[in-house]
Amino acid sequence: MSERRACKAIGFCRMTIRYETMRSDDHDLRERMKALAHERRRFGYRRLHVLLRREGHLVNHKRFFRLYREEKLTVRKRGGRKRAIGTRAPMLIPLAANDRWSLDFVSDQLTDGRRFRVLTVVDDCTRECLALVADTSLSGLRVARELDRIMEERGKPKMIVSDNVLYSE
After folding, report:
1. Helices and strands: H and E segment counts in the chain
2. Average pLDDT score, the chain
3. Are 49 and 59 in contact (CB under 8 A)?
4. Which of 13, 23, 86, 129 is a good FRET partner for 50, with 20 to 30 A between their CA atoms?
5. Is the dihedral angle over the CA atoms 55, 57, 61, 62 positive or is it negative?
6. Which of 50-59, 82-91, 97-106 is the least confident region?
7. Distance between CA atoms of 166 and 159, rounded to whole angstroms?
8. DSSP state of 25
9. Which of 67, 85, 78, 79 is nearest to 28 (CA)?
10. pTM of the predicted protein model
11. What is the pLDDT of residues 106-128, one digit of tens each?
């Protein structure tokens, strides 16, 4: 059967059967796109398009996006925040003085704009304020010195809590 009769039988135009695409082969562009996407995983198609344009590949942004999708390239999602595995031990209610002390920092600003911090130490059972230390800067050594001073007066606590961080014997 001739081509003309076959096309007439199935209802196709002969031009669609003989059509040959004039689209250029994008193999080198696709390879370079994959290499750049692998090097710069956080770059999306727009930033990769700019990099390729700087290298001399003049490609329409819509065509570039089509190739980007065809290659199944995507920006990697950022990982979530790391969380501690397991469950926390419940915070025990203090039954006697020196069972648990809480320490915290409070900061404020003077009228002239200078900032100051206040270290507060509280006995959780008696709710007694053991120390209030105000200064423009409180170093770790100063905090340790103040805790040592309080321990000389009151004795050593079983645990010290600071912003959900637990320090115990």
Report:
1. 6, 5
2. 88
3. yes
4. 23
5. negative
6. 82-91
7. 7
8. P
9. 67
10. 0.48
11. 999 988 989 999 999 999 999 99
How many other C-beta atoms lie within 10 A of the C-beta of residue 123? Answer: 20
Query: In this structure, what is the dihedral angle of CA atoms 47, 49, 53, 56, given to the nearest 10 degrees?
Result: 120
Band of residue 103 on the pLDDT scale cut at 50, 70, 90: very high
d(CA 100, CA 157): 6
Over 70: is that where the pLDDT of 76 sits? yes
Residue keyed to tokens 């079983």: 158
CA separation for the pair 149, 134 (Å, rounded): 15
The encoded tokens of residue 153 equal 């007066």
CB 102 within 8 A of CB 122: yes
All residues at 6 or more sequence positions from 139 whose CB lies less than 8 Å from its CB, including other chains = none
* Residue 3 identity: E
| Element (DSSP H or E) covering residue 11 | none
At 80 the pLDDT is 79
